[in-house]
Amino acid sequence: MIITSLLDTDLYKFTMMQVVLHQFPAAQVQYKYKCRTQGVDLQPYVDEIRDEVRQLCALRFTDEELDYLGSMRFIKSDFVDFLRLFHLPERCISIEKSASPGELDIMVEGPWLHTILFEIPVLSIVNEVYFRNTQLAPAYEEGRARLQSKVQLVRNDPDLKEFRVADYGTRRRFSKRWHEEVMVTLRDTLKENFAGTSNVYFAMKHGLTPLGTMAHEYLQACQALGPRLRDSQTYGFEVWAREYRGDLGIALSDVYGMSAFLRDFDMYFCKLFDGARHDSGDPFQWGERLIAHYRQNRVDPRTKTLVFSDGLTFPLAIELAKRFAGRCITAFGIGTNLTNDLSYQPLQVVMKMVRCNGQPVAKVSDTPEKTMCDDKAYLAYLRQVFEIPAE
């Protein structure tokens, strides 16, 4: 069994889920899966994936896990009480062979509150099932050598005392076993340079700091849940601030692209939020634009955190750290390059929300291939409303 704990997921799933419980308990959503890697045949493993998901849906939170969640300052007791009764509903997920060669059709549909935790473990299952069937003798020694070379890049550079890197690699990991080894190695070798992990299970098990705030699906859902489409981004930020009262203050910047984000992220939000997270487009341009935006709004960027998390490698993260040193606080979340770097081509798998309350929702990324929407007319309308140039 690949997933043995419902905590084996990213922290931002719980922080968003708490908002859903308190603000949008009746919302209905639909998620669709996609593999962006060409030439991968997952169809032989569909039954194995189904079996793993069936076991996932049988899991419940333990008292120890709930006590751990409840110890976090921003997790409220009524949310913990809800989780005490929670399980993932198997009726809400379908896994079929696609008409397209090699591909799978995975769909999740149902109440947002009850389906939000599917995404990360399902993607982890797809990855691990694929790799355990195609790599029967995993190149762990190669992976360890690559991991040590990354560690040495940080330890051998005296200018990186303030460098902070975190693991964001649960969804695309080679395996759970390898993920855990990476976590322990980083904890023991990078020490203060290792900020923590997005994975709540490993954070609890190994005494690491769990990290995360919001993901794209939250701001996407606000397209259907807010008062009007043009205000959906500011509505999402306001609801988040109302829920967390200054905690978890990193805003996601790329659901509508950086230009639209800066138009909405006015002086009020600049002062209210602790910083922002980059997840598409050129990271250097993004950082320069955000620092200039803070200055224009009379906010000292040296007091704000810029979180970089888009396809990072250690050399790129280090280059970014040096570029912005002394100009802001930087943090780096590395995913696939940490948890699936054993010489094999990783799977670029995603599961994105495509509808909320029956209405299409979309993310219009600064990286065009990351845009995902199943309604072209709605996507065109969204671009018009947010003044996003056509690709």
TrEMBL record:
<dbReference type="GO" id="GO:0004516">
    <property type="term" value="F:nicotinate phosphoribosyltransferase activity"/>
</dbReference>
<dbReference type="GO" id="GO:0005829">
    <property type="term" value="C:cytosol"/>
</dbReference>
<keyword id="KW-0328">Glycosyltransferase</keyword>
<feature type="domain" description="Nicotinate/nicotinamide phosphoribosyltransferase">
    <location>
        <begin position="163"/>
        <end position="389"/>
    </location>
</feature>
<dbReference type="GO" id="GO:0034355">
    <property type="term" value="P:NAD+ biosynthetic process via the salvage pathway"/>
</dbReference>
<feature type="domain" description="Nicotinate phosphoribosyltransferase N-terminal">
    <location>
        <begin position="7"/>
        <end position="127"/>
    </location>
</feature>
<dbReference type="InterPro" id="IPR040727">
    <property type="entry name" value="NAPRTase_N"/>
</dbReference>
<keyword id="KW-0436">Ligase</keyword>
<dbReference type="InterPro" id="IPR006406">
    <property type="entry name" value="Nic_PRibTrfase"/>
</dbReference>
<comment type="similarity">
    <text>Belongs to the NAPRTase family.</text>
</comment>
<dbReference type="Pfam" id="PF17767">
    <property type="entry name" value="NAPRTase_N"/>
</dbReference>
<dbReference type="InterPro" id="IPR041525">
    <property type="entry name" value="N/Namide_PRibTrfase"/>
</dbReference>
<dbReference type="InterPro" id="IPR007229">
    <property type="entry name" value="Nic_PRibTrfase-Fam"/>
</dbReference>
<feature type="modified residue" description="Phosphohistidine; by autocatalysis">
    <location>
        <position position="216"/>
    </location>
</feature>
<comment type="function">
    <text>Catalyzes the synthesis of beta-nicotinate D-ribonucleotide from nicotinate and 5-phospho-D-ribose 1-phosphate at the expense of ATP.</text>
</comment>
<dbReference type="Pfam" id="PF04095">
    <property type="entry name" value="NAPRTase"/>
</dbReference>
<keyword id="KW-0662">Pyridine nucleotide biosynthesis</keyword>
<protein>
    <recommendedName>
        <fullName>Nicotinate phosphoribosyltransferase</fullName>
        <ecNumber>6.3.4.21</ecNumber>
    </recommendedName>
</protein>
<dbReference type="GO" id="GO:0016757">
    <property type="term" value="F:glycosyltransferase activity"/>
</dbReference>
<keyword id="KW-0597">Phosphoprotein</keyword>
<keyword id="KW-0808">Transferase</keyword>
<comment type="pathway">
    <text>Cofactor biosynthesis; NAD(+) biosynthesis; nicotinate D-ribonucleotide from nicotinate: step 1/1.</text>
</comment>
<dbReference type="InterPro" id="IPR036068">
    <property type="entry name" value="Nicotinate_pribotase-like_C"/>
</dbReference>
